Amino acid sequence: MSLMTFVALSPQLIIAFGLVLSMLLISWHRSQRSINILTQVILLFSLLLCARLLFADVAQVTPLLRVDGVGLYALMIILISAMVVVQLSYVLLKKHIEFHDEFYLLVQLVVLGASVLVVSDHFASLFLGFELLSIALVGLAGYLNEQKHSVETGFKYLILSATASSFMLLGIAFIYSQTGQLSFYFLPESSALSSPFYHLGIILFLVGMAFKLSLVPFHYWTPDVYQGAPTPVTLLMATVSKLAMFAVLLKCWFGLGYAYQESAQSVVLVIAILSMVSGNALALYQQNLKRLLAYSSIAHMGYLLIVLLLSSAAGESFAWQSMLFYFTAYVFATLAIFIAIFYSCSQQNSQVKNKALHTGFDDELLISDWQGLFWRSPLMAALILVSILSLAGIPLTMGFIGKFYLLSYASQTLQWGMIIALVIGSGIALFYYLKVIFVLFATEGGSKVSASLAIQARFLAITLISVSLFFGLFPDFLSQILQQLSIA
Q1: 95 exposure class (CB count in 10 Å sphere: 0-12, 13-18, 19+)
Q2: Is residue 449 very low, low, confident or very high in pLDDT (cuts 50, 70, 90)?
Q3: Helix (H) or strand (E) run with residue 302 in it
Q4: What is the pTM for the complete model shown?
């Protein structure tokens, strides 16, 4: 390996080396504070290396990996999300008597798997990163075995991962049988394109991806797993996992030219429209906040499928720009709302009288639990408000600019069906998003959530509010960065 390729792959190598250091630390000295600090240092160091390499030229690292600007930017968002997850996990785990150092190892494995996915250039590296991420998430989903629904959640996510892996692997096998290639960047011969096994392989591969992205009709696991998993783990699934999977899907989709195949476009069109409408419709009458966000995420992934439909090769750069901007807005809004949910749940559980029988967090937070929260905790209410407005795509927030990008892209590619579905889905979403906002400002009754926030929570809240409003008011700053990223 040359020095250039070593430097290009340094963020992934830092995470892998950090895993080894973490295991050595655990074997030498079991301390949740120490492993938390080491994990944060590893993620921060990798983040700084990504920022340093962000505008470098594309680097091919063996036939399996290709490091480019869009992959490094996606990895930066993943690392930021993981750092927030680690901080929340420390608050959660320190409430337990026994040590949970292994939890941090699993989080690092998830990040390593995601970091492999965003720079994948080959079906082999894609599957390796997919399995690394999925297996670690299975362990995390059911990690707190004393928590309600823990065993059920872990089992459901295990079945999901096995099913998605099976479909994906079978699809890759069919594609390989007709093309003899596993790289993302080659043009299949006309004989392969006319083969029914090749098209079946594409469909099976999409099904595997749709399971992981919780797209309709492969979404049934999402609300149960979101609700049953610990809040930091749910946040990890909603941000790190989905961003990594969508980034590698886009690389594969454009590299193999699936965006120009009518059969593949038709499948994506149907899945996208169903996800936009069904996800928002199913969220309408949800009272549990984590289940509401689960159905909302289904709709958001449906919106993002718009970028898979190209009309010409010239639109690929704009597709990447639209996806990254929208995902940045979605990730920051999701971080904000889950931070509010986490601290709301932790404050509720701290008030439980029989603490001997309550060693974990229930995470059963209802919309009504935030009744009148603004009058007791303005900062937390502001965090929730900005997050909800961004997810709904209201002006002056980053989410509005993200949806504007998607609408602009859809209009350029003449996807009028997608535009209609996005408008209808966004209209339905306003109903349940505004319901949460009205509850925050209600004067009758009182919030069940305490008004106090830890110092770290206040810092995170102010940072996320500022970022969402800044990029909502000045989107050109981020847009110019995205335009300069190298694309493989």
Answers
A1: middle
A2: low
A3: helix 289-304
A4: 0.93
